[in-house]
Amino acid sequence: MQSASVQPGTMEERAAQRLRSIVEKYSFAEGEVVRAYFAKPRAAEENVEVLLKQIGREVQGRAWIGPELAARAKGLERTIDRHEYAEFLRESAEEAEHYVALADIAEWVAGTKLEADRLLGYEVVARYNPEHGDDLMYNRKLPEACRNLDVGREMVEALGFDRADHLMHLAEGGGGGAFVECAKLQGDEFRQRLATAMRKIVRDEMGHGPGRIDGYAREWVETDQQLEEDARWLDAFMLAHLRVRNEIWGYSLTEERIAELSADKQ
Asked: What's the confidence (pLDDT) of residue 159?
């Protein structure tokens, strides 16, 4: 979605501000997960596991990307808008680049070539889609990621797929806070390599998620009731995503701290 100027005092402006405040709250919280992880010494194997769990988010959807691309290409200028088509290609390529960068670092940390089953062992879908079977979306090695999908399923049931999918997109990358924190890392070679990769991911994820907020507010929110409903669901989805981030980074935060960070301070 293209961003556009928002007129003061309009529903569009209020919706954008409200939804952005939720994304920013959880973006800060996800940054704290990373800060807590690096606040204490970590073994190489812990770092490998973190990378593999993040890789699982980047490489998701391999089972259907080919058929979906073919369908979009066939429908171009008929049922598929050219901008939507280009966006799909760009985001798919960016996610593949993220996977490659993180996999290279994981193998460097491990000091050996990793088997495919290890590299891809944490693959899990980030957004629920009723067209895809549970066996392709869920990964029982990641209970918090599964619960995040369950929240997405409830959103789809409550809002309908199109609206829920666009709303879930706003939460992509958890607002980017974890990636921003990683991009600032300094010190040993692992931190430096991770920071270099994450600077690229930060640039991409800002467009994937937070960059969509103004467009969503303009195209989907027409009433205060809709805004309240969207805000409630976005908060629930991003809280579940925060727990996913905590799962990826070795449960660095306690549940009590997560409750504090997620408290509504708007």
From this structure: 97
